[in-house]
Structures are given as structure tokens and as C-alpha cells.
Amino acid sequence: MQSFEKLPFTYDRKKSFIEQLGDWVGDVFYDILPEAGFEIRDEQIFMAYQLERSFAEKKVIFAEAGVGTGKTIAYLLYAICYARYVGKPAIIACADEALIEQLVKPEGDIAKISKVLNLNIDVRLAKAQSQYLCVQKLEKLRDADENPDVYGDVYQSVPSFVYNNVPMQEFHFYGDRKTYSKLDNETWGKINWDAFQDCSVCEKRHRCGMTLTREHYRKATDLIVCSQDFYMEHIWTQDSRKRKGQLPFLPEASSIVFDEGHLLEIAAQKALAYYIRHDLLEEILERLLENDVREEVAVYIDEIISQSLHLFTIINKNSSHVKGSDRHDLEITSQVINEIKEFRRLLTALEDALVFESELYTIEDYQLKIVEEHIEMLQYALSLLEEKTNVVTWVTKEEGVTTLVIMPNLVEDVLREKVFSKKLPMVFSSATLSTNGNFHYIAGSLGIKDYLSFTVESPFDYKNHLKVFIPNIEHTQKVNSVIEVIEKSEGRALLLFNTEDELLAFKEIAKTDERLENYQFLFEGDQELSSLVHIFQNLENTCLCAIHLWEGLDVPGRSLSSVIIWSLPFPPNDPVFNGKRKNVKNPYNDVDLPYMLLRLRQGIGRLIRTSTDEGIVAIVDHRLSQDKDMLEVVKSTFPIEVEVNSTLDN
Fold first, then answer.
1. How far apart are CA 419 and CA 589, in angstroms?
2. pLDDT in tens, 239-264
3. Distance from chain centroid for Cα 383
4. Other CB atoms within 10 A of residue 390 CB
5. Any signal peptide, and if so, which residues (predicted)?
6. What does the DSSP assignment read for 19-34?
7. In a domain? residue 76
């Protein structure tokens, strides 16, 4: 339903909406925001009017805007008004789950424009399923786990209506990861929803915090903020959910903004991956045996379970751990292919038998659909692996459970059909979208043929506000350089690591090195990440250590006075990037180096967030002392007017 009366300007139906919206945006930037004390920049106004083209023509636009351009406010003005004009919410898909809270924080851009423009903005968060508590898992762990007090406290926080049949009169919010911010990631991982939960058979599914929150955010009128991972999961699952009689994860949108849009391809690949586990298949099929099925069906089920167990034995035998990764490489031998073929033959036989079984009405239709959907997924995923159709595959082994992961290497065809065929305004916003001065690479990798684009540089005075420190050191001197920067900035440092192993190694150093005892360290994984960011922003002399804050983090002022990059952020040696490397002539120049430089630029961009910010960016990777060519490449990521020093001046 359109909400013309809620538009922040008087809408004349006889005139172009976009033209009237543009006039209002001009008033906001030239009059309203300056009068409210906002610092308005020419680059921001230029970006705003470039974005207008996307909404007027309902096209994709690549909006490459340097740090400090104020791109968030620019796209919010258009997205909110267009949502009210069309009668559907805008979807803002952020880099990851950790950063969606940043957009709606009390001091964030949405809160600012809501106050200044006197707009009651209806913004709701749509978090991924893994961000919610699973009451079923919690109940099992409360009595069985070695830390019953922790899970007992969480259990006490669950509303009473979950366990009784009292009717709910209004929306009840519970179960969000942020509610349990003090739990570390390992503890949370034991009680949250996971990809192998079968929610369809859960007796509490209609009182589940995740389900209730989903019903709540679907009713948003202005903005729905989610992660790119969750948006892509919505895209890939919407057809199957409709077939099951379920609503898609997200409602139809008026426009879509991909904040830090350069990461969308990775999110798409992750969402399109297929996860295959023997224990899950066994559980689903054994549930079928509880019905009055024919002997033929029962025999096929037994044979499939046996073949699945055998297949995973062969998979374990042919997989080897990838150093520096939590994944295992799978060698696709002729034996693996033969076992897959036999497995698929049995699945086909069961599918045929279930067609006849469905006509006997001995199995509940909903339960039958679940089995059919799972078999269909197995058949398609395994066919990709069997035919070696441009896929990446790997194995994970956690708590004795082996998971086979099959992921398409290239996703542009699916994205073109499922996402970019829609005639909608779609904004890709990032400081790093172009390659060699054009947008061909990102457009091609996403399957986008028709698009708009522009680039606007950062307005900041980097020459006088940014110090760059790249020490000439050996590996053993790295910690000394880090401590030198921390002392120089009196804490107030963001330390960016490329892997969890690096972060954990420094965590031990921070505990034992006496030179660091006067500073408080916050480590990703110890608490929910947005809560750690809040502490860091509001507590002096604090250092925040993270793996997932290279993008999106916005902490202006003295709280963040230095960014320390522990090592150059080259992509990991894992099956995903190995798949990318196999599809190019020069893996280092075409995959590794572009990824590293893009991520490095993002990390550097965390420091200067306003025109008055100043501080130090330190890169303490000892390899730069040994490789002069690499050093020159890294130097080129900084603004040309910035001097790079090997020592810290007093």
C-alpha cells in the first residue's frame, strides 16, 4: 500500500515523483542538514544526484564513493522515500551480521536523519537464522553440558509462553544473539540454530524467537536491514519455501542497497553451497519408516542409509586437512565417483517408489515434501560433483561429524536470473568497486550486463591527518612494532588479523607481555561482536582485535586512533579460492593480489571517518621488508599525498 501522506514532502500526483524527490533531497543537503550542524560535502551531493538515476531508471548502479563521502545518508534518503511511494520496504544488505547493528545504533545515520528530518523511520533487522537461540538444543544442553549454570541462565531468559499454551497478544522479542552478548562464540554455537536443524518437526516452531522475529520484520514499511549472506539465502530458498507453503525469508522490496557491495559474490557463493551429512539424511529417512510404508520403500531406505555411510567412509579416506584452514580437501577419485553414482541410483529408485506411496496417503503430505526436497537437493548437488561442472568442494569435520560441501564456482548465471533480472533500483555502495578504472570485473562476476556507475573520491585531508608506518623488521620484531603503535596512540587501536590463528596467537601475547598490561584488549569471539564495538567506542585506552572488521566499522573520534594490520590480507589457501585460481591464467595477479589490495584498502579506511579524525595506520608484515616490489604495491593503496615512513616520529 502506497503511503503518499508519509512522504516528507508534499507530493503532486500530476508531476514526476523522482523530480519532486530530487528537489526535496536538494533542500535536505543545501538547507536542512547544514542548519542542523551537519558537514555537507560536494562529493556527497554529487553522489546523491547520481543515485537518483538508479531510482529513475530502475537500474543497478555501482556507487564507488571514498571514505567520508557520506554515502549512507545519500542512499537512505532515496530508499526511504521510494519505499513509501511504492508501498514496499527497501532492503539494505550489509557486509555481514556483525555490522548490521552498526547501521541502527543510536548514534548511527538512520537515527540522525530521523531526528533532523522529523521522520519516524520504521527500520527492522532481519538477522540470519544462526543469530537466534534454538530452544530445543538449549533444553538438551541445560542438563547434559559441563557448564549447566551458563545454559541455566539462558534458559531462565526464555519467556514463559514458549513452554505453555497461553495465547500471545503481541510480538515478543527474544532469542537474538545480541541478547546473550557476553557468551563467547563457542558457547553460542552450541545453542543457536544451525543449518542441519529440521524446524518443520519442532513443536515450538510457532513460538520460536526466530519465527516471531521473522513475522515482525516482514511488516516493516520503510527499511529492512540484513546481511548479504542472509539476503542471498533468501534468494536461493524462496522457490522451495513457496513449494512448501511457506513465506520467503524477506518480503518483496522497493529497492535494494548492497552496502560494501564488492562482497556480494562471496555471499552468493556461500548461500548457494550444498551441505550433505549422513546423520541428517538418516534421521529424515528413518522418520519415514515410522509411517505405514510398503516393504519396497523400507528396503530402499535401508540400502540408501547403508550406501550413504559407505560413501562418507570413502570421503573421509580421500580428504586431507588444508593447513591454515578449518577445511579438508577432497580428492575426487574414480572410487568416489562410482560410489556417488550408486548412491544416486538408489535415490532415484526411492523417488519413484515415493510417487506411488503418495497415492496411498499413508505418509503425511508435509513430511513427504520434506523428504522429496532433501532428495532433490542431494541429486542436484551430487550431479554437479559427479559431472565436475565447475564446482568447488570440500569437507568439514566437527565433533566427529563429516560434512560434504559442494559449491558452484561461478554464480553469475544464477544471479542474473534470480536477482538482476528484476527491474528495481539496486545500489552497490563501497569505496572499492572498480578495477583498473572500470566496473567490468564486478559486473561480469555478478552477471550484470546493464548498469550505471560513478566514482567519487574521499574529501578528507589525508596528507595532514594520516600517518603511515611500515617498519623494516624481521618476523621476531613484529610485536615490538605493535606495542610501539599502541603506546603512541595510548591504546585506542583496532588490530586487524587475517586468520583466527593469528588473533589467538596475539591474544596469548597480550596476556603475558608486561608492556601491554595497562591496556584493555577486546577479542572477537569472546562476546557478540557489535557489543565489543560498543565497548571499544566508549572506553578509553582500549584495543579491539578482530578478523571480521576490515569493512563497515565506523568509529569516529579519538576512540580509534590507530589501525594495526598484523599481516597482509591475502586470501586463504582453501578450496573456495583454489577454485577461483583454477579459472584464471595468473592466479596471483588475477585472484590473490586484487583481493589483498581491496581488503587492505578497506582496512585502512577504518581510521579516518570524519574531517577531524587523525591517526596512524601501521602494517607490520615482515614480508614487506623482504619484497620491495610488494612494498611499492602496498604504498600505492594510500592516497598519493601521504608519506609512508619506516619509523614513528615523536
1. 30
2. 888 877 889 999 999 999 999 898 89
3. 28
4. 12
5. none
6. HHHHHHHHHIIIIIHH
7. yes
User: 342 pLDDT exceeds 90?
Assistant: yes
Report helix, strand and coil shares of the chain as percent, to nearest 5. Answer: 50, 15, 35
Residues 426 and 392 in one domain: no
| Integer angstrom CA distances of residue 135 from 131, 306, 458 | 13, 32, 47
643 DSSP assignment: P
Burial class (CB in 10 A: 0-12, 13-18, 19+), 253: buried
> Checking DSSP bridges between strand 60-65 and strand 223-227, what pairing results, if any?
unpaired
Q: What are the residues whose beta carbons fall under 8 Å from the beta carbon of 24, sequence distance 6 or more?
A: 8, 9, 81
Task: Note whether 455 and 61 are within 8 A (CB).
Answer: no
Q: Which domain holds residue 592?
A: 466-645
The helix (run of H) or strand (run of E) holding residue 396 is strand 391-398
65 and 139 in a common domain: no
* Residues 157-182 pLDDT 10s: 888 888 776 666 565 678 888 888 88
User: Across-strand partners of 545?
Assistant: 495, 523
**Could you tell me if 494 and 631 lie in one domain?**
yes
Angstrom distance (rounded) from CA 609 to CA 349: 61
Cell of 601: 584498502
Give the pLDDT score at 32.
95
Residue-wise pLDDT for 433-460, tens only, equals 887 788 988 898 898 999 999 999 888 8
Long-range residue pairs from 630-637, CB within 8 A, at least 24 positions apart, any chain: 630/568, 631/470, 633/593, 633/597, 634/470, 634/568, 634/597, 634/600, 635/470, 637/597, 637/600, 637/601, 637/604
The pairing of strands 256-259 and 60-65 is: unpaired
- Alpha-carbon distance 499 to 569, whole Å? 9
Integer-rounded Cα radius of gyration of the chain: 26
Distance in angstroms (rounded) separating the CA atoms of residues 371 and 241: 14
Supply the pLDDT for residue 324: 66
Average pLDDT of the residues in 278-286 = 89
In this predicted model, what pLDDT tens digit does every residue of 568-589 receive, in sequence order? Answer: 999 887 777 877 787 788 989 8
pLDDT of residue 519: 93
For residues 286 and 390, membership in a common domain is answered with: yes
**Residue 239, in any domain of the structure:** no
Mean pLDDT of 117-121: 93
Answer whether 20's CB lies under 8 Å from 9's CB.
yes
Does position 265 have pLDDT exceeding 80, yes or no? yes
Helix 97-104 / helix 529-538 crossing angle, nearest 10 deg: 50
Task: Note the pTM of the prediction, 2 decimals.
Answer: 0.83
Residue 237 backbone phi and psi in degrees, to 5: -100, -5
Q: Report yes or no on 650 lying in a domain.
A: no
What CATH number does residue 289 fall under? 1.20.1440
What is the pLDDT of the chain when averaged over all its residues?
Answer: 88
Q: Which residues pair with 640 in a beta bridge?
A: none
- All 3 cell numbers of residue 210? 526466530
Establish if 96 belongs to a structural domain.
Answer: yes
Distance CA 179, CA 199 (A): 22
pLDDT the model gives residue 193 = 85
My answer on whether 43 and 146 are in the same domain is no
Q: How far apart are CA 55 and CA 78, in angstroms?
A: 8
